[in-house]
Amino acid sequence: MKKGITIWSFPKQSLEETFKLAKKAGYDGVELSVEATGEITMESTKEEMEEIKKQAAANGIELYSVATSLHWDHSLTSANPETREQAKAIVKKQIDVASWLGCDTVLVVPGAVGVDFIPDCELVDYDVAYERALEGIKELSVYAEEKKVSIGLENVGNKLLLSPIELRDFIDKVGSDYVGAYFDVGNILRTGYPDQWIRILGKRIKKIHLKDFKKASNSFVNLMEGNVDFPAVMEALKSIGYDSWLTSEMGPLYAYYPDMLLYTTSLAMDKIMENYR
Predict the structure, then answer these.
(1) Cα–Cα distance between 206 and 31 in angstroms, integer?
(2) What are phi and psi of 168, to 5 degrees?
């Protein structure tokens, strides 16, 4: 397994500075993101991404996955057809960027029934959201196959695909080797047990996000300070033969000194991974 970290965990700075800091803190790679502004956007070109790829390589950093926060404003399950089309365009742009950067996976939120942390969020009936998500991901799977980039569906606070069996069956209904799960071990702790999800999803898992969550305070915390049973998580990953990236997703907002958090997270990941690397 390799040790990665999401771009969202860094302070605002250039990607070149980010790659340097990631390497210094002991990470093997960085997960990038398509955003409304910045160095990677919906307007980014192949030539621009090739330069970013060169910057990463020059600093000894691998690029392997592309996320986005744009899905929260443009949902695949919206009642507005134009919004759904824009959501598809975002995923296709993620796939393009990933292919230009040499990444093999994009992180996708498959839609939402509702989102508690978005004020006045559009509410969609569960069965309707499910069918719209399935239709959208099936369509996008064709593009993913063409570009040889996998779509990883993340379990997030979207009140959709709420059990490992449901997510497993959803992926199987899409029926593409290029669609699987981007499983977040911390996000699931409110409603389930990550090791169980891992064993049920099995080979469908494309990538893993590492976060920790403390039930008593109902909040995300630093790795190994919450209730995620990391030994059980690692045993489950070993049992399904997972040997891809583990990506920490911490966010500078979790500490006053974001640089320090990058280092402490790196050390925590080393401890979590020490018997499995």
Answers:
(1) 14
(2) -55, -50
Span of 14-18, 119-123, 218-222, 255-259 with lowest mean pLDDT: 255-259
pLDDT tens profile 30-57: 999 999 999 999 999 999 999 999 999 9
Alpha-carbon span 238 to 224, nearest angstrom: 19
Cα torsion for 103, 71, 153, 54, to the nearest 10°?
10
Question: SS3 for the chain, per residue?
Answer: CEEEEEHHHCCCCCHHHHHHHHHHHCCCEEEEEECCCCCCCCCCCHHHHHHHHHHHHHCCCEEEEEEECHHHCCCCCCCCHHHHHHHHHHHHHHHHHHHHHCCCEEEECCCCCCCCCCCCCCCCCHHHHHHHHHHHHHHHHHHHHHHCCEEEEECCCCCCCCCHHHHHHHHHHHCCCCEEEEEECCHHHHCCCHHHHHHHHHHHEEEEEECEEECCCCEEECCCCCCCCHHHHHHHHHHCCCCCEEEECCCHHHCCCHHHHHHHHHHHHHHHHCCCC
CATH for 2-273, options being 3.20.20.150, 3.30.70.2390, 2.10.109.10, 3.40.50.720: 3.20.20.150
CA distance 253 to 55: 26
Give the pLDDT score at 253: 59
What's the pTM?
0.96
The whole-angstrom separation of Cα 121 and Cα 67 is 21
